[in-house]
Design goal:
The protein contains 18 helices and 4 strands. Helix 2 runs antiparallel to helix 9 and helix 13 packs parallel to helix 18. The protein has a single domain, classed as Sodium:dicarboxylate symporter (Proton glutamate symport protein), CATH 1.10.3860. It is an all-alpha fold. The radius of gyration is 22 Å and the shape is globular.
Length: 422
């Protein structure tokens, strides 16, 4: 059997396994003809990421506008209300799951003593402190300003997805109000653009195994296994909480609310989940997510075109969970006991920041900084988690993407669609 006849998700899984083995066996100084193997991996991984990101702006605009053209005002309001309610509910559930496990396992306490001095701070602490020092709770309010950018072209170029989504929603709504030949021209153009973008996505995904191999091997070669030992319990706590949300809570939503098969949806979403894991970017994975949800799970573009771009921007279940666990872990490591009121504050801020600062680079670190300020811990405490942040970022991004896809399926079912998962 040739590689072409192996399903894409199996190709990516095989590449992932090879990446782990390569990263553990090879040293980062290994070179080929004077060029380090690590630099080759960086080049291939960046090329793959750039190819995916290249599709985001035209795909988001075409998808939302095409979806909006078929919606009436009542349908739009109903879809919007269900989408926002779903995203708020699942994010809150993720945070509470994280809070339960961090209180249960106490990863910041070692042999009854705070783990701060045992773990030590990462060497990158100063760099991160400079990056996030000017961020604060006021950044949450900026989410409303980012929704209405003064220049839509600049917003698109800078990856400000909220502004692009808002513009596309309004544009699509008024396209639906057009009549005659002008309406048909607009509909044909945007539908054609959407079809082209999906075909380009399928082309780029043929190279996904190579891109995944490069991205994951690079992470393992740089991080190394030994770096995880001092933070093993924190690492385990986050993974366990993410696993409960991914494999128990979200499948329960699919089974009992959407009334579809969670196993079928997992299988349909495997290419997107593996791409999200390797790229650590919900936005970069969006073209793949849309392809899987529409062509493999059978959700209409009207629903997926509205829920998925919005979810990739504001729905961050895994990120919200991680922020809560990280803040609690840091408090434990510094020997600070947090009462129920303070923990509720952490839950609320984690929920707001997972939405409000999602468009800011290093969003999780910024959000954790806001939480630390609220609890009264120093910014330097971020250094405690930097060593394992990159790998955990890969895991929580996969959870973010799967939650987005569950939203599309659930809302489609609530809207009366059959999908292919029943």
């Amino acid at each position: 059997m040739s590689i072409k006849h192996i399903a894409l998700h199996w190709q990516i899984l095989i590449a992932l396994c090879f990446a782990v083995v390569t990263g553990l066996v090879l040293d980062r100084s290994v070179s080929i003809f004077g060029v380090t193997f690590l630099s080759v991996l960086v080049f291939i991984g960046t090329l793959f990421l750039n190819a995916l990101k290249m599709l985001i702006v035209p795909l988001v605009m075409a998808s939302i506008i095409t979806g909006m053209m078929g919606l009436g005002g009542d349908t739009l309001g109903r879809l919007g209300a269900k989408t926002v309610l779903y995203y708020a509910t699942t994010s809150l559930a993720a945070i509470l799951i994280g809070l339960f496990f961090v209180n249960l396992l106490q990863p910041g306490v070692v042999d009854g003593e705070p783990a701060r001095h045992i773990i030590g701070l990462s060497a990158d602490t100063d760099e991160v402190v400079v990056k996030v020092a000017d961020k604060g709770a006021a950044d949450i309010a900026q989410v409303l300003l980012r929704m209405v950018p003064p220049n839509i072209v600049t917003a698109a170029a800078n990856g400000q997805m909220l502004g692009l989504i808002f513009f596309s929603l309004i544009f699509g709504f008024f396209v639906s109000k057009l009549e005659g030949s002008a309406a048909q021209v607009q509909k044909d153009f945007w539908q054609g653009l959407l079809n082209i973008m999906m075909m380009m996505t399928e082309l780029i995904m043929k190279f996904a195994p190579l891109g995944v191999y490069a991205l994951v091997t690079r992470v393992i070669m740089i991080s190394g296994v030994e770096a995880f030992a001092p933070l093993a319990l924190f690492f385990t706590t986050v993974l366990l909480a993410l696993a409960v949300h991914l494999f128990l809570f979200l499948p329960a939503v699919l089974r009992y609310l959407a009334r579809v098969s969670p196993a079928r949806h997992f299988k349909a979403m495997l290419p997107a989940l593996l791409t999200a894991f390797s790229t650590s970017s919900s936005s970069a994975t969006l073209p793949v997510t849309m392809d899987c949800v529409e062509n493999r799970s059978g959700v209409s573009n009207q629903v997926s075109g509205f829920t998925l771009p919005l979810g990739a921007t504001i729905n961050m279940d895994g990120t919200a969970l991680y922020e809560c666990v990280a803040a609690m872990f840091i408090a434990q490591a510094y020997g600070i006991s947090l009462d129920i009121t303070t923990q509720f504050t952490i839950v609320l801020i984690a929920l707001l920041t997972s939405i409000g600062v999602a468009g800011i680079p290093s969003a999780s670190l910024v959000a954790i900084t806001i939480i630390l300020a609220a609890v009264g811990l120093p910014l330097e405490a971020i250094g405690l988690i930097l060593v394992v942040d990159r790998v955990l970022d890969m895991c929580r991004t996969a959870v973010n993407v799967f939650s987005d896809s569950c939203a599309a399926v659930t809302i489609a079912r609530l809207e009366g669609e059959e999908t292919r998962l029943v």
